[in-house]
Amino acid sequence: MTTSEAAEAPPIIDRTAWLTLAMTAVVGFMVSLEITVISLALPEIRASFDDAAESTISWIITAYNIGLASLLLVAGWAADRYGRRRVFTTGLIVFAVGSLLAGLAPSIETLIAARILQSIGGAMQFPSGLALLLTAFPPQRRQMAIGVWGAMGGLAAAVGPPIGGFLVGLFGWPSVFLINVPVAALAAVGTVLWIHESRGDVPDGRVDLISIPLGTIGVGAIVAAIVRAEEWGWTSTAALTTFAVAVVLILAFVFRSRRHPRPLFDLDLFAIPSFSLGNVGSIFFVVAFFAYFVPLPTYIQEVWGWSAVRTGLVLVPGPLLAALTSPPVGRLADRIGTAPILTVGGLSGLLAMIIHRITTSTDPEPFLGVILPGLFVGIAAGCSFAMLVGATMRDIPPARFAMAGAGRTTVFQLAIALAIAVGVAIVGRPDGPADHLAALRQVWLVCAVLFAGQVVIFGLLFPRIAAQSTAPTIATRPSAGD
């Protein structure tokens, strides 16, 4: 083999890398499936705890969302500081215990507490798992690995409704939690046996202890304000106070992080153009996707009169196409980069919204009204979910994988909460089928604008060439005292 041929040969991927991909993909599928199937279990949970108020029942979902989003930054720092495999494995154990307690919960209060425990485990898994995956693969093959990893989320969305219906129908609502216990336990054992430990570049000494509650409570307050504002009222004292508390705490967190030599999150990561633009592009796509996806099943069931099972089946093709699209798209991104693929994803989502506005009516039209635009949304998801991770993390130094991954996932979770709030706020409580469709058309218009924004960001603004420099080392910052 000549020198030039050796230089062009693809890098060798060892067995450990493939095992790391397998473990992180299985865990990603488990966590994504939990999000998908929980909605199908809510009616039975309400029946089991019929003395609980509806506002209390809703905390089964809200508590998990708040806990997950608020703890990601701490989890990312801990993964870089104490070991990514250690934090990932610990997160799996915590998630399994939370799932077991949720499945055995004798009261609604115990179930909500178990969901909070699940959120702690989930927060520990996300940044550490992504860091383990990126570290295991050479840069030339990372997009392929991210594509396979991201496909599991799409697959969970596709098979979640039928799996959830099967579990709830045969074994009752506790089964949607108990199914996680053996999966998480086996994944924890496999991680310990097969995955190498890695750490990030975290300077010795005490992290900024003040910024931990500032960031944790601040992010949690933002999520709480967004997801509860519809119930409280957007101009209510509770909503405005919670938003104000969140803004003050986040501003204080930014001030501390800028001045402390060992911040919880290095804000200089946002000086990397691909990281900052990737996060902005993520907000555009995530808000568009979830604002579209969340209110649509309710419309189909309430206006078209379809059952939950039939609705779930008609929505399966889009997520299934996303799962099938993501792995080959990842391999393609290793050759041409993520930006062209994300541009196609935005265009596909934009086309889906146009089809929706033209074809959907108050009469059941499953192909033109749901399946066809859903397929284009599936392409958008297959080209976007995993590739947004790859684009955002492209120029991050390996020593900062967990910290940057935690920041990216925090933005992602905030965008999901915002998307649901946007969809719910626009649709509201429609007065009849025509009013419901009119509100949904407004949602699709907003989504179309956001998908167009994704096209602009990755078609025109995103840097095509990887940065050569890395983020400044946080240990070099002058201390402003603790």
First CA to last CA: what distance? 58 Å
What best-fitting shape do the alpha-carbon axes yield? globular
Largest sheet, if any? none
Strand content: under 5%
**What is the strand tally?**
0
Order of secondary-structure elements: HHHHHHHHHHHHHHHHHHH
Structural class: mainly alpha
* Helix proportion: over 70%
Counted by DSSP, the helix tally is 19
Mean pLDDT: 84
Radius of gyration from CA coordinates = 22 Å
List the uncertain runs: 1-7, 469-482
Describe the protein in words.
There is one protein chain. With 482 residues, the chain is mostly helical. Helices cover 77% and strands 0% of the residues. The chain has 19 helices and no strands. The longest helix is centred in the first third of the chain and has 34 residues, at 15-48. It is globular. It starts with a helix and ends in a 21-residue tail after the last helix. Mean pLDDT is 84; it is low at 1-7 and 469-482.
